[in-house]
Amino acid sequence: MRTKQPTNGTRWYRLAMLLLMTLATAPAQQSQYDLLLKGGYVIDPRNGISGRRDVAITGGVIAAVEESIDASRAVRTVDVSELYITPGLVDLHVHVFSTTNIPDAWAGDNSLQPDVNLLPSGVTTAVDAGSSGWRNFEFFRHTVIDKPNVQTRILALINIAGLGMITDLPEQGDFNAEEVARLAAKHKDVVVGVKSAHYQLPDWKSVDEALKAGTTANIPVMVDFGFFLPERPFYELVLERLRPGDMPTHVFRGPVPWVDANGKLYDYLSQARDRGIKFDVGHGGGSFVFRSAVPAVQQGFYPDSISTDLHVGSAMGGMMDMQTTMSKFLAMGMPLDAVIEASTWNPAQQIHREELGHLTPGAVADIAGFRILEGRHRYRDASNGVLEGPQRLFCELTLRAGRIVWDWNSVVGVDYESLPPEYGVREGVDQIIPPPQ
Known about the structure:
The protein is α/β, with parallel strands linked by helices.
């Protein structure tokens, strides 16, 4: 029996139906997500989001942030309904130049390896704050920043002193603004500013040379004021020396004048902020006291950026890590959304990296997931002062470029009893060899 051949009209009809079916299924295929974070409380200050949202990720970038996204459209869905979901944190002040092999140096034994000390706190971007200078920055880049196994995004401030933070002594001279500016231009993908630090002399040479380099390279300057002397008072630094966008760090250090005899904040602080000066915390091992930070927060003067000054001494002391430093500001009364803003979007803007610190579709999927622990939590400043608060931020989840790199609560795991009987044995390599009976 001969099969009836389709007529031209039938052929066109079938082709049309096939085309319609293809068009109907194409959007579903195009909207497939690699990962869906479902039901979290999203805080994204840059986009004005503070509420329940689903976050979809494809190809390492944010694909969608919506009130509800169908889980069937994702390859993997993770329930984050008990977590606060934020952009990956941006810590503006760390020390990770640990490869100099110089005993007892900030740039050496006292610096820390990045990933294990940053990702567990939700920090996906960190700025090394002047550990290296213009003489050894490229060695720092080669041995730390560009190492293929480092997952944290490491940016840098170049120290105006040639050898950076080997000890305080090299930071008293060997300034070269032209060379710092040249290196900043050559390495503009990672260099985001200039650092002046630990200066002990009564003049402004370190600060002035850093400002010269920053102006030439068109990048901000961070100043660790070092020794507080009557010849160069702190208020002159922020009112007359620094440019808009520049950042004094360690702003809650003991010698910084914050309140008058009546407990009121000095006017020069708001005047400096009006000039565009950015106040960075830089907690560190000896640069943060509650007696200054508490009245500042209570009177509505929040820091522009919350940072750690992470190094061996501060990590093992009262500072501990980024999530603890943020929790201290919660305990002082700073609203959670403001704490997140000072740890994400604000610092990203201060270093002119506006592509970071937010969850806008198309942005890199650097994400942190926090639980707020309720209870009695005690916090210590850098001079053994203690403050108690009812809440503590605790990071359970960190994503770097869409990949889960810290998973405290094992959200990516499965019940071991549901796995094959010999899971964990490398197929074709290992065998389970039982002992003789």
